[in-house]
């Protein structure tokens, strides 16, 4: 499915969402939820055995079925996630779930390669790990579960999900839906499971379980570090604080609109969203004015900026969790800053070393710092990114600047002249992922990330050149 088709599908789902969100679906009766981790892993292990003995076509049939069955549930998924977590907004969650469902690669991602010569033939093929322990966040709970379930099953695995306690109701509801759809499709029960009551202790038990060889962690650095200490193979999505560089050659009008779209998307919950801007001073005023003309609230008063900083960042130099994923209006009201209308984004001009530049806030409050030239802008952006190597964005028409920034930033995702969400396949080329594994090196994950590359050698045969 191409991006135009996805856009049309999102519009169609949005048109139906108001009516759908009023309906209450009954919880499907199935065995996806277990009282303890041991039972969940045992069930998933048995399901993996059944899947592993079947043909590859079963995996792709499952993927196709999930896309068909879950499409009608996307409005309810978005509504449930928003109501339970209190973060983001329904319309953007609909788009995130849509790209997760329709733009996540299936079995086509598992390309076989071969080498032949006088010595014979060697095949390189992707094979499953078995039972994967996957941790989903509260910021993108349903999107991550859909994205990971498709990729992991396409790779031939079973999955035990550990849902975030802050999104446990919508997560377990979705897991039940997925499991039931798989059973109805191919008769295999418990390929995707979870415990009935997600908790920190259940997550620890899952991480250390002997029958879980691979851990996939989509969450903060604390839970990733905890997984790394198990000694298992870990795919970990780490922290990020994506900077945006705007140089003097950029199309300022387009750049301002793209930045607003990316930084306001689901109220800045995605880890890839623009968190800070560094603009060359010769076009700084032009950019700030463009932000204001395209619906952002440009807060200029120093006292107001101080109050915004105070409510956004706590004494522990971390984002105020009460404002994470909240609307621009909510943030402005919390700071006691007067505003008109319904702003798309809050923008403030600050110094390059301001805490608002350095702390990943996960809210639609965008700090903007200036630099004398591109060279200084790049150095500031590197400090803002903090060596996380996660995501960076740049707006420029200078190919040399774009190339140098991409090489210097070394991020898993580097977006040029587009909103940040282009980096996860929303509106631009590329597949969708919600597990961006920078600390462990996989980058934007897909089915092949959840498989082992195996080597099969046949001596003195099948060389037909």
TrEMBL record:
<feature type="domain" description="Aldehyde dehydrogenase">
    <location>
        <begin position="32"/>
        <end position="419"/>
    </location>
</feature>
<dbReference type="GO" id="GO:0008774">
    <property type="term" value="F:acetaldehyde dehydrogenase (acetylating) activity"/>
</dbReference>
<dbReference type="InterPro" id="IPR012408">
    <property type="entry name" value="Acetald_propionald_DH-rel"/>
</dbReference>
<keyword id="KW-0560">Oxidoreductase</keyword>
<dbReference type="InterPro" id="IPR016162">
    <property type="entry name" value="Ald_DH_N"/>
</dbReference>
<protein>
    <submittedName>
        <fullName>Aldehyde dehydrogenase family protein</fullName>
    </submittedName>
</protein>
<dbReference type="InterPro" id="IPR015590">
    <property type="entry name" value="Aldehyde_DH_dom"/>
</dbReference>
<dbReference type="InterPro" id="IPR016163">
    <property type="entry name" value="Ald_DH_C"/>
</dbReference>
<dbReference type="Pfam" id="PF00171">
    <property type="entry name" value="Aldedh"/>
</dbReference>
<dbReference type="InterPro" id="IPR016161">
    <property type="entry name" value="Ald_DH/histidinol_DH"/>
</dbReference>
<keyword id="KW-0520">NAD</keyword>
